Amino acid sequence: MHRPSFKKHAWYIAPALGITIWLLIRTVPAFYVSDATWVVCEEGEEPTTDRWFGEDEEWRQGIEDDFKDTGDCTASYEATVTSQPPGLWAIALGSPIVSLLALLFIRSSIKSYQGGDNPDFSKSLTSRSLYIGFLGKVIILLFWFVLLILISVVNGSQVTFVDETLWRYGNPDFMERILFFAWIFSLTLTPAAIAFEAMMFVHATLKDTVFGIDNNLRKTFTTAVFTGIGVISFIVGSELMESVVGYGAAGGVFVGVSLLVIRRPILGVLDGVSSRFIPSSHTPEETAYLDAYSTAMEDRIITKEERKLLDTVASTFGLNEKIVKQLEDEYNSTLEEE
Fold first, then answer.
1. Which of 48, 69, 46 minimizes the C-alpha distance to 60?
2. 95 alpha-carbon distance from chain centroid
C-alpha cells in the first residue's frame, strides 16, 4: 500500500476494478432486476397491475394477488414494484464488512506514523480523521443492518415493496405506521453514513490548508445532528399524539418547543461528541500560543505587558502575524459563544 509504484496508479485501479466487476455481474440473475410492474389503484376499486418490463408472468400475478388480498383500494395512486434479487441485498449488507477491512488498514497507518524515533503527528492526525470517518460509517451501517432485521421480525417476514406501498397508501394501523417510519428512516442511514465519512475526509484533506476547518466542521456537525433530532422528534411526537387523541400537530409542536427550551444542554453534549470526532488540527506551537493567550485572557483584557509577552512567545515559536490573529480570533469566538 505504501509503495510509490502502487500510489502512482491507485487513482485509476480502483474505478477500473469496480467497473470490471459490474460488467461481470450485471447480467447474472442474482444481481439483475429482471421484472417490474406498475400497481394502479383507484379508490374503492380493485388494484390492477401493468407490466413495465420483464417476462415473469407468475411474479406479476403474485404481486397483483398480494394487493387484491388487502381488499379494495383506500386511495388513488400508482406505484412501481420490482423484483428484489438477493445479490443486490448481499452487496448492500456487505458494505459494513468492507468498511471494517478499511479500518484495519487505517489503524495500521496510525500506528506506523506514531511509532519510531521521529513520529509524524501531522500524518497521524490525518489517519485518525479517516479512521473516525470509517468507524462512524461502520457504526451507522451496523445500526441500519440491525434496524432492517427488527423491521422484518416485527413485520413477520422480509419487507417487500408490496409492504412498503401498502404502509404508505393503504389504511395502516399504529404498528404499520411505526414500521413505515422505521423503513423510511433506514433509507436515510446509508446517506448519513457516507456524509459523515465525507466530512471526516474533508477534515483530513484540508486541515493543513484551511485554517479553522476543524471548528467549522464541528459547528456544521452539531447543527446538522440537532436539526435531525428535531425533525425525527417532531414526526414521532405527531404520530404518537395522532394515535392517542387525534391531534398530531399538537404533539409535534410540544416536542419542538421542548427541544428549544433544552437546546443548550443538548448542544453542549453534541459539541463534546463532535470534539471527540474531529480533533484539533493545531500544531504544537499553535497550541502553546493558545494556552498562553487563554491565560492572558482570563480577565478578558490584554495589557501592554501581556501583549509584549505574547509577541515574544509568537516570535519564539515562529508564528507570523496572520496566524496569531487567526488563533486569537478563534479563541475570542469561543468566548462569545459561552
1. 48
2. 14
**3-state DSSP helix/strand/coil percent for the chain, to nearest 5?**
75, 5, 20
Q: How confident is the model at residue 125 (pLDDT cuts 50, 70, 90)?
A: low
Q: What are the distances in angstroms from CA 217 to CA 103, 210, 326?
A: 22, 11, 17
Residue boundaries of the structural domains of the chain: 1-32, 35-83, 84-205, 210-278, 284-337
- Distance of alpha carbon 71 from alpha carbon 48, whole angstroms: 12
CA 215 to chain centre: 19
Distance CA 316, CA 313 (A): 5
C-alpha cell at 189: 442511514
Reported in sequence order, the residue ranges of the chain that DSSP labels E, i.e. its strands, are 36-41, 48-53, 77-82
The pTM score is 0.60
In which region does residue 209 sit, left (phi positive, over 0), alpha (psi from -120 to 50) or beta (all else)?
alpha
Q: How many CB atoms lie within 10 A of CB 305?
A: 9
Cell numbers for 120 = 509524524
User: What is the residue whose three cell numbers read 404481486?
Assistant: 63
Greater confidence (295 vs 243) lies with 295
- CA of 234: how far to CAs of 13, 140, 225, 244, in Å? 46, 22, 14, 15
In 3D space, the residue among 74, 87, 95 whose CA is nearest the CA of residue 137 turns out to be 95
How many Å is the maximal CA-CA distance in the chain? 88
Q: Residue 225: CB partners within 8 Å, gap ≥ 6?
A: 270
Q: Which residue has the cell 497507518?
A: 109
* pLDDT tens digits for range 299-330: 788 888 888 888 888 888 888 887 788 778 87
Helix then strand count (H, E) for the chain reads 13, 3
